[in-house]
Sequence to fold (811 residues):
Amino acid sequence: MSWCVIKSGDRLYGIEVDRVLEVLRNAAIEGVPVSPSGVAGLLNLRGQLVVALDVQQLAEGVSAGDRERVVAVVVSYGGESVALCVDSVIDVREISHEELAPIPSGSGVEDIGRMVTIDSERMVIGLDVDALIKRVGCVL
Amino acid sequence: MDEIVDEFLAECNEILNTSDEILVQAESTGLSDDGVSSLFRGIHTIKGTAAFLDFGRISSVAHEAEHLLSKVRDNNIAINKARIDLLLESLDALRSMLAEVESTGRDGEAEYTDLTGRLAAASELGYGDLVEDEVATLETAGRVFDGTTSETDVSENNRTPEKKAESEQASIRVDTGVLDRLIDLVGELVLARNQLVASGVDAGTAGQRLDHVVTELQEGIMKTRMQPVSSLLTKAPRIARDAANVLQKRVRVAVDAGDTELDRGVLEAVRDPLTHLLRNAVDHGVERPAERLAAGKPPEGVIDIKAWYENGFVVVEVRDDGRGIDPERVKTKALERGLLDSVKVSELTPSEVYKLLLLPGFSTADTVTAVSGRGVGMDVVRSNIERIGGTIEVESELGVGTSWILRIPLTLAILPALIVRVGSYVIAIPSSSLREALRVDASSLECVGAREVLRLRGDMLPIIRLRDVFGEKREENAESLRIILVTGGLERVGLVVDEIGDPSEVVVKPLGSLLSGLKAVTGAAIMGDGRVAYILDMSVVSSDTSESRVVTLEQTSQENESRLPEVLVGVIGDRRVAFEMSNVERLERFEKAAFEDTGSRRVVQYRGGLLEIEGETDSGYVVVCREANGDLYGVSVDSVEDVSEVQIADRETYVVGGAVAGRFTGSTERR
Fold:
């Protein structure tokens, strides 16, 4: 299984490549008035408006702050497209499902993914994208 | 296989609709040879395909109907009302079996042996011919129904189905998702062109050509979504006929939609409201034949449905020649239902009186009938029409008739709107609700209850600061305010904005499921410069004002403007809320355990009943208030400050009681 490894804040996350539609390196986003928490704004993807989510806020409860330009990983969600705003895209890795271990509870991210150590030192949280997106409106 | 079935269903539905139209027309003007063969061909197709797909029940009903039609076609029997009724019943039976196929893939369990039996009987000579008053009915229509209708009938009445059959061959079915994607892409192409122009690149004649092609491409793509309004109205005669039969009335529907076209989405959105208006016209508008004769009118009522273009909208008018609406009766009902007080009612102009019909909970029908009059009436029509950016008006003359006028935007995809700036956001206000733009001194706003109001030409207009709505901080020390007057619901409201831009046509985009709960915004649009504009939800504006409306009016008349009544000041979080003392019953403190959750709301046991609690605060303090109708409700607060008279200078810090009570009352009633 291929995973797209991304960096957000101090952490590394993995997103299944099958879910990734495209990666935008320098996407302009616009603020949304009175939007639910975790929403960074809207992004114009060739005439289609796509909701951009703040991955750091959804995963850690800490907003990455207002940014006008972001790196966005566009993923499929139901029949729609949703953009996940991250700091950078690092790599694409082969990680099998057996390698992924449950995350200890109490960490705040145990329900949105499973973890794996790569390069024998760095921890990557393999994201359950749907679970992450379901946190919209429910984080601080 | 599924694809074949889908094709079959779509084809059948088209055939059934056309057949409906021909049969209902036949009732008043006779059945032409062309009409008969069109019906025959349609039913024959259904029969054949159904047999091929092994839908035996559909096939057998279609077979008997086809047999009857073949006899009519060969002039062996004449068409009459009884046979038309029977054929319409068969169409309904086919329709319900097709619906079954659509949902389960099979043609259902229902047996129509009774229907097929009657169809067979009707194929014999003499069926239904002896019922005298039916013959009379047919004769008043001015034609004799013997299957040998004159040549003029053919040319006048039955051209349409034939023409349709031809145009169907020239069209193909396209997935609407593909069309929507094309619209997105063309919008983006327009954007890229604009950016090219703005960047100052001189592309010469090639640039001009690009310009023309893009514009034409955009128009062309938009056209693919357009459908004739007449396709929406094909069912109207049938709907009116069925309603009239139930109510023992006689109604003829005349449809003239000209060449008007609407976007598919809009067409679907007005289908239900139009059906409702039509049934309403039959039920409440048109009188019974005897009553009509007594009033010197022909026994058959006429409902005229017309559609035409006007100022970028399609106007649809549903006009009946019935008894009209009595303004006095409307006023009485409005008073009974507590929608307005007597002072206010007496001041209303006739056109304002008719607007009352569009308020929630209004129905003048004295009895509930199967057709309409359940009190969920015109306000639903109104909100459905307003949701798509349209408007509705009523005109009526007692004894002469009533007409409902809908103004409907051509498309949901392109919205004519005024662009304004509110804080850091670009907001599009739908043009359909715009009235005027003003610039006023900040000091000219007055405060009544919780609301700011503006006096304009003798009217009190509620003011909404859009910065509040969109969660932006208010501008400090603004000397003059830019105000856009809009009609939100039934009310004129002033919206305070920061900057007024140009009117423009924006391409509306959906916001996706994650933002579907967004308040105050119905969608977004990408502007010519690539920025996102948010489309203001006019229903939020109207519900925001209507809840505190009565309170506002009462207070205006009763109080002088510098002082408000004595209030109890409560603290909820960082807000201070004032309760008008005349509404406050008691201040209570409950144990935490006393609060119970009933799922949607909190309640406590109080004076042998349940007291509904508004607000989330759990300090235990509850201000018990009394509604105008005597019911009690509670508002939970953190603490209570004191009883005081609030001066107008303090208005920024207080949300004043009457309005708070009014809002809570409003929401309580609605549940």
Summary: DSSP finds 21 helices and 28 strands in chain B. Chain B touches chain A through 30 residues (CB under 8 Å). The longest strand of chain B covers residues 499-509.
